[in-house]
Design goal:
Number of helices: 19
Oligomer: single chain
Low-confidence stretches: 537-549
Mean pLDDT: 90
Number of strands: 14
Strand content: 5-15%
Strand order of the largest sheet: 2-1-3-4-5-6
Largest sheet: 6 strands, parallel
Structural class: alpha/beta
Radius of gyration: 24 Å
Shape: globular
Helix content: 25-40%
Length: 549
């Protein structure tokens, strides 16, 4: 049968969209989330799988398929619901997985025929068998059948365009050793921190269409012996990669050296706040470490730090963003990501805000980190969002970036591995850069360009690093200036969060007793399968002989 797996589009600009960078490199998007390429690779032989990224491809709703699968985080689940509704209107059954379906399965079932609660690896094949028999259940509890992360095939990158994405994701571990109040990772993946074999991870890196890799793990050093073994094996692979890690990696000199030798060029760290009391309130004690020392230790080895901050916590005021901007200026932290404190399903923070009557969310779209959704003791939502925009524009101001990077590149050794581009692509990228910096924008932009280009002559900085700074600086400056104030209809009303959002996944009962009726009412009756499934032709394009389903 034909199965279409769809990653819904994000509704607005966001830090990682790299829209400007993609145009410069001739790529359509930053990356494709790993969930559905992984599900595609786990699909048994005998089925045709079509991967669709709604961010870069228009969805053909009239394309004949037997089953549609969608995934979604809460911040773009509205788009997932739209997609599901369109297919169900056409009589095509839909199954949904991902964080929102896991944390709010009753709501998801209003729009789909079946939900996967938790991880899909150990239940996907069984779901397809049930569907083929016309017996697809409403609920599949992957949360009760967690995979051990062993023997997973690489994501089905062959179903995507090799030139579509800047980065390709790789997952080495799953889970996080911490349990921050604003995060739902523990709810989704459970308490255990799981690892793959290092050899499998190496094979997955080799299978990626490009040499720019992003580890999607929430904390790649959650198991330190595993991380050291992996980085040792990655040495000499000629890849450039980034990852997410906790701040304590900065005080592990051996680990940092292994990372550098393995091709790491940036580390994303959730610093969250400069207020150490707020760190305790967030339940992230590891962040009591000195940020200035941490940034210096990582960057002196030639790896950029992307430090992420949350604004809008109770103890902050309108001076907070100025303090963060000053911290970036003094520490010379390369890049900054900012989120406004919000309360998505599955977090302890949501339960707290609901109990205090402070949760004011007009749409799931607002839970994207760029909108104020929690009532603050001293600041209005509009003031918090204004500060958010100001901080981005201040940090990514051309002169401020020039000052940071001249200081950073003047110290240490910056030898990033080259992007795997053809000679023709390299020439096109350089010409685009040259034109954009010299003929578009203010003089400050040109000053930044010439200051960074001067490091082409430095023995401690290679061409790839210079190009990276120019491209990333251009991309995030454009993003900072694309942010606009929120405009709402005069009669807009906040949505009501259901009690199910506050029920820990481990305590959910839906689907535990078997195939009982959820009781969810739908405009279109639930479909358990198709009476007539598509029989795949035996063609070379589909891998030769295939069993008809």
């Amino acid at each position: 049968m034909r199965i279409k797996l769809i990653t819904p589009a994000f509704h607005s600009r966001y830090f990682w969209d790299f829209r400007k960078l993609g145009k410069m490199l001739g790529r359509k998007s930053n990356n494709l989330l790993l969930a559905l390429p992984t599900v595609a690779s786990l699909t048994p032989e005998g089925h045709e799988v079509i991967l669709v990224d709604d961010n870069i491809t228009d969805i053909d709703y009239d394309d004949p398929v037997d089953l549609v699968g969608v995934t979604a985080m809460t911040c773009y689940v509205n788009r997932a619901f739209e997609i599901a509704d369109e297919y169900r209107k056409r009589g095509i059954p839909v199954v949904m997985g991902g964080p929102h379906a896991t944390l709010a399965p009753y709501e998801a079932l209003e729009h789909v025929d079946s939900v996967v609660i938790g991880e899909a690896e150990n239940i996907w094949a069984g779901l397809l068998e049930d569907f083929a028999k016309g017996e697809m259940k409403e609920v599949y509890r992957g949360v009760d059948a967690k995979p051990d992360m062993k023997d997973n095939p690489p994501p089905a990158w062959n179903l995507t365009g090799s030139k579509d994405y800047i980065f390709h994701g790789v997952e080495a571990t799953r889970g996080c050793p911490f349990d921050c109040h604003f995060c739902s990772i523990k709810q989704i993946y459970g308490k255990d921190f799981r690892v793959r074999t290092t050899d499998e991870v190496i094979e997955e890196i080799k299978a990626a269409p490009g040499n720019q890799i992003f580890f999607t793990d929430d904390n790649l050093i959650g198991n330190k012996p595993f991380a050291k073994e992996l980085f040792t094996k990655m040495k000499g692979m000629n890849i450039a990669w980034g990852c997410q890690m906790s701040i304590n990696v900065a005080f592990m000199p051996k680990m940092l050296q292994l990372m550098k030798e393995a091709g790491c060029f940036f580390v994303f760290i959730g610093l969250e706040t400069l207020d150490k009391d707020a760190v305790v309130a967030m339940n992230k004690p590891v962040n009591k470490m000195n940020y200035y020392d941490a940034v210096a230790k990582i960057q002196e080895l030639g790896m950029f730090v992307i430090g992420s901050f949350i604004i809008g916590t109770d103890k902050e005021d309108r001076d907070t963003v100025k303090e963060i901007a000053e911290y970036v200026k003094v520490s010379k932290q390369s890049w900054l990501m900012v989120n406004i404190m919000n309360s998505p399903p599955g977090t302890k923070f949501l339960k707290m805000m609901e109990e205090e009557g402070r949760n004011v969310v007009y749409s799931y779209d607002d839970l994207d980190g760029a909108h104020a959704t929690v009532t603050h003791p001293t600041m209005t939502h509009a003031e918090t969002e204004e500060d958010f925009r100001w901080l981005y524009r201040e940090v990514y101001d051309w002169d401020n970036m020039r000052e940071r990077f001249v200081a950073n590149l003047s110290q240490g050794h910056w030898k990033q591995n080259e992007h795997a581009l053809t000679v023709f692509e390299q020439i096109k990228v350089f010409h685009r850069l040259l034109f954009d910096f010299l003929f578009i924008g203010p003089w400050a932009k040109k000053r930044f360009f010439f200051a960074i280009m001067a490091f082409m002559l430095s023995p401690r900085v290679n061409r790839a690093t210079v190009m990276n700074v120019l491209l990333m600086g251009m991309s995030w400056n454009e993003f900072a200036h694309s942010l606009q104030p929120t405009v709402r209809a005069a009669d807009a009303q906040p949505i009501v969060f259901r009690k199910e959002y506050m029920v820990p996944v481990s305590e959910q009962t839906l689907g535990r007793a078997g195939d009982e009726d959820s009781g969810v009412e739908r405009m279109i009756p639930r479909m358990e399968g198709r009476k007539r499934l598509t029989v795949l032709p035996n063609t070379p394009e589909q891998g030769g002989e295939r069993a008809a389903v």
